[in-house]
Amino acid sequence: MAVKVLVPTVLQPLTGNQATLICNGNNVAELFDSLEESYPGIKSRLFDEKGQARRFLNFYVNSEDIRHLNGIDTPLKDGDEVSIVPAVAGG
């Protein structure tokens, strides 16, 4: 099952400067495990030591925020698109 992952610029040094990756996983958690195998160190930038998504990152599956779906247990299917989006703050 191929899932497209959109990587923000700030994390691209961990992916060989690739903005788009094709990975596998039956759900979001498995997808990020797969990413870690291919790009060691990326998972620790996305999740804290308790396995929770870092506060300043948002994850979307086909433009749907996973917080409103099943979190990291959100199922994936072939052709889905997962976006990693850093939070933006300003004043």
From TrEMBL:
CDD domains per UniProt: Ubl_CysO_like (cd17074)
Signal sequence segment: none
Pfam families assigned: ThiS
Family matches, as Gene3D superfamilies: 3.10.20.30
Residues annotated as transmembrane: none
NCBIfam families from the UniProt entry: moaD_arch (TIGR01687)
PANTHER family: SULFUR CARRIER PROTEIN CYSO (PTHR38031:SF1), SULFUR CARRIER PROTEIN SLR0821-RELATED (PTHR38031)
Stated name of the protein: MoaD/ThiS family protein
Protein species of origin: Umezakia ovalisporum FSS-43
